[in-house]
Design brief:
about 230 residues, two-stranded antiparallel ribbon, 17 strands, about 0% helix, DUF7907, Uu.00g049560.m01.CDS01
């Protein structure tokens, strides 16, 4: 099974959180949970879609961060959801920089497939003031309206757009590459209950980590968290 990570559409645009490199005077209150949904926050309101993207649930999936304490601390975990009866692990995969979507050959797909997922696709850890999904490389998550051949219809899907990395790392001048018609997003974890597993499956919650998450992403007033 392979499916793109779909985004739902909200009637109003969420206010963008600060990028991790900005200085903020305060930070939104967080909680903790093993399970979470992913919620999209648009980081460039001027390029927002109409209506704005919101939840990245892909059929109501609840995700969890999988890995040992050391792996999670070092950002080497992966993001898993359980699917099927009995349950099997499905991971979030991001195409490598030298691989591309067959229908959109300039873009890198983000999919949910059977297996453990792409290593380092995990939640940002302290000292980052925010908890958000990282792609394991320098780049941005983007939301794009794209036609999915299997369904013969257009959906808003998540892609990963790799940065063009400056040859001089001291300049910190990487160039973002948001595909045409897409908008840059952060994917924030909204706390949820991780369902129990029943016998007979392959999935295991032995290394399901307790993750920093937000009780209600839509309720966060990001204007209170400006420089």
């Amino acid at each position: 099974m392979r499916t793109s990570l779909f985004l739902g559409l909200a009637g109003t645009a969420p206010t963008a959180p600060l990028n991790s490199g900005q200085v903020a005077s305060c930070y939104p209150a967080s909680s903790s949970s093993t399970g979470f949904h992913l919620v999209a926050n648009v980081t460039e309101p001027s390029t927002d879609l109409t209506p704005s993207p919101k939840r990245a649930e892909s059929h109501g999936m609840i995700f969890y961060q999988n890995g040992t304490a050391e792996e999670i601390r070092d950002g080497r975990g992966s993001i898993i959801t359980d699917g099927g009866t009995p349950a099997f692990p499905f991971g979030i995969y991001i195409q490598a920089e030298d691989r591309f979507d067959t229908a959109y050959p300039a873009e890198h797909a983000m999919t949910i497939q059977l297996g453990s997922g792409t290593t380092r696709v995990s939640l940002a850890t302290l000292p980052s003031p925010y908890s958000y999904l990282t792609g394991g490389a320098q780049g941005l998550f983007v939301a794009c309206p794209r036609t999915i051949a299997y369904y013969g219809a257009e959906f808003v899907v998540v892609r990963f757009a790799y940065d063009t990395v400056d040859s001089d790392p001291t300049l910190n001048a990487n160039e973002h590459n948001v595909p045409e018609g897409c908008t840059a997003i952060n994917l924030l974890p909204e706390c949820d209950t991780l369902p129990e597993l029943f016998g007979g499956g392959v999935s295991s919650h032995e290394f399901a980590a307790t993750s920093r998450c937000y009780e209600d992403v839509a309720a966060i007033d990001w204007s209170d968290c400006g420089p």
